[in-house]
Amino acid sequence: MATQEQAACPHTEQRPVENQWIDPSGNEAVEVERIAFSTMDDIDLRRMKYRLCGKVGYYSEAARAFYEDGIRSPGISGLE
Ligand SMILES: [Zn+2]
């Protein structure tokens, strides 16, 4: 059963990223910024899983029907 917390999962995680630039007086400047990265991993052809919440997603309705219900359709060529 999905909890409220899972429903609100942004499917991202914050990771620090270093930004470097030259300021107007010619000095090198560095700033660390936290950026949200997707937690999506491919687990199969046309199927992916979000690492943090464990939610599984599909790239197409045909792929979902094949993996969840075993329904074969022209849209799943390559999955069998
Ligand atoms: Zn998530």
Give structural notes.
With 80 residues, this protein is α+β, with helices and mostly antiparallel strands. The chain has one domain (11-71). It is built from 2 helices and 5 strands, in the order H-E-E-E-E-E-H. A 3-stranded antiparallel β-sheet has the order 3-4-5. The longest helix is centred in the last third of the chain and has 9 residues, at 61-69. The protein starts with a helix and ends in an 11-residue tail after the last helix. It binds zinc ion.
Question: Brief overview, please?
Answer:
The chain is 16% helix and 42% strand. With 80 residues, the protein is of the alpha+beta class.
What is the succession of H and E elements? HEEEEEH
Number of discrete domains: 1
Bound molecules: zinc ion
The parts where pLDDT drops under 50 for at least 5 residues are none
The count of DSSP E runs of length 2 or more, i.e. the number of strands, is 5
Q: Would you tell me the overall average pLDDT?
A: 90
What oligomeric state do the depicted chains represent? single chain
Portion in beta strands: 35-45%
The amount of helix comes to 10-25%
Q: What summary fits the major beta sheet?
A: 3 strands, antiparallel
Structural class, by secondary structure, is alpha+beta
Q: What would you call the shape? A: elongated
Strand order of the largest sheet: 3-4-5
The tally of helices reads: 2
Separation of termini?
A: 29 Å
